[in-house]
Write a structure and sequence with these properties.
The chain has about 375 residues and is an alpha/beta fold. The protein folds into 2 domains: about 1-245, NAD(P)-binding Rossmann-like Domain (Rossmann fold, 3-Layer(aba) Sandwich), CATH 3.40.50.720; about 275-370, Rieske Iron-sulfur Protein, CATH 2.102.10. Helices cover about 25% and strands about 25% of the residues. The chain has a 7-stranded parallel beta sheet, sandwiched between helices. Strands 13-22-21-16-15-14 form a 6-stranded antiparallel beta sheet. A 4-stranded antiparallel beta sheet has the order 17-18-19-20, with no helix packed on it. It is globular, with a radius of gyration of 21 Å. The two termini are about 15 Å apart. About 45% of the residues are buried.
């Protein structure tokens, strides 16, 4: 079955592409990097030809009120019009729990407008409303920081791991349209201020978290249950403590070394083959480990072969933009999570490798089958 994943190079999209590819589907990872722009309509008709399902997990590059509204209205309108013309049988859109409850937030108003366009269209659909992702808790803290204080409201939140979101989206995309909304959330609720404090503590971040009932979230004040799903929500499996244990890495000190967690550094065992210190790979960077390039992106680690499949350019010397690495020799681009080619002249995908983390040590593990190209 041909499935088009719009936003296929992002945090959720890259995972969805990988899961669907492994399941044997023909996947088009559609994004501006691959020549498909849902906002302008460029490349849409070709991408949608023969598609049975469209999964829209794209997000606006700007959260400014007018810009985010323009993005979701234009992209959704163009997608739905293209799907009608192509005979697409199922439109799946990832949205946010609470869109209808937070009209004072420009972002939530835009997501609500997106949902209305979908509901009013002729294309069978399923809207997946998810709670906040574990992977964005750091960004929430950064956005709420004033000086050395992080001001967040002490409301309930039930965040979910990106892997669980992707699994839910894949299950829905390969099923029957419900012509309605499905809520998904994490397995357990927390108070937002306490949760942010735990994230910062795990990274030995010295900022102070202050519970402020009037602090804003995406531009709006919150009620106690604004961010939690209803009783019928489908819940993910990955618990917060397990996720934090896999992803936490301490803030580096001024000498570029990981700061001591809990006031003291533990003795370090020698690294084994294919192992590395996660403190050596700060977010948005790449590290050469043997013949493998290890990337720290989107709150996690992934690895690919270190050489471009076109002319063997060193990818660890290329540029990394989100989950896209650009070869320094001829400009070929790849998704570092899936290995998929996003831009030529390369034609063959990268080999990808699983990365596991234990404490402050990462290890490049079992090879994953190369991605199947959809574009």
């Amino acid at each position: 079955m041909k499935i088009v994943v719009v936003g296929g190079s992002g945090l959720i999209g890259s995972r969805v592409v990988t899961m669907l590819t492994r399941a044997g589907h023909e996947i088009v990872a559609a994004s501006r990097r691959s020549g498909v722009d849902a906002v302008t309509g460029e490349g849409l008709a070709d991408a949608l030809t023969g598609a049975s399902v469209v999964v829209d997990v794209s997000n606006s590059p700007s959260f400014e009120d007018a810009a985010v509204m323009k993005f979701f209205k234009a992209s959704t309108h163009n997608l739905l019009a293209g799907e009608v013309a192509a005979g697409v049988r199922h439109h799946v859109a990832l949205s946010v729990v609470g869109t209808e409850r937070l009209p004072r937030s420009g972002y939530m108003r835009a997501k609500f407008a997106q949902e209305k366009l979908i509901k009013d269209s002729a294309v069978p659909y399923t809207i997946v409303q998810a709670t906040q992702f574990y992977e964005f808790l750091d960004s929430i803290a950064d956005a709420a920081t004033h000086g050395n204080a992080v001001r967040v409201p002490p409301v309930l939140i039930q965040p979910i791991a990106a892997d669980d979101v992707a699994r839910a989206v894949v299950k829905i995309a390969t099923g029957t349209p419900v012509n309605g909304t499905v809520e998904i959330g994490g397995p357990e609720p927390f108070h937002l201020d306490g949760l942010v404090q735990r994230v910062l503590g795990a990274r030995d971040d010295p900022r102070e978290v202050i519970a402020d009932p009037h602090a804003r979230y995406f531009g709006t004040e919150l009620d106690e249950r604004s961010l939690v799903p209803g009783d019928e929500a489908e819940l993910g499996e990955i618990r917060f403590d397990d996720w934090l244990g896999r992803t936490a890495h301490p803030v580096q000190d001024r000498n570029g070394q990981p700061a001591a967690v809990g006031g003291a550094r533990r003795g370090r065992a020698p690294l084994k083959e294919n192992e590395f210190r996660i403190g050596e790979v700060p977010p948005g960077s790449v590290l050469l480990v043997g013949d493998v390039a290890v990337f720290s992106v989107e709150g996690g680690f992934c690895a690919t072969q270190a050489r471009c499949t076109h002319r063997q350019g060193p990818l660890n010397e290329g540029t990394l933009d989100g989950s896209t690495v650009t070869c320094p020799l001829h400009g070929a681009q790849f998704n570092v999570w899936t290995g998929a080619v996003l831009r030529g002249p390369a034609r063959d995908p990268l080999k990808t490798y699983r990365v596991t983390v234990e404490g402050d040590v990462g290890r490049v593990d079992v090879p994953i089958a190369p991605a199947v190209q959809g574009v």
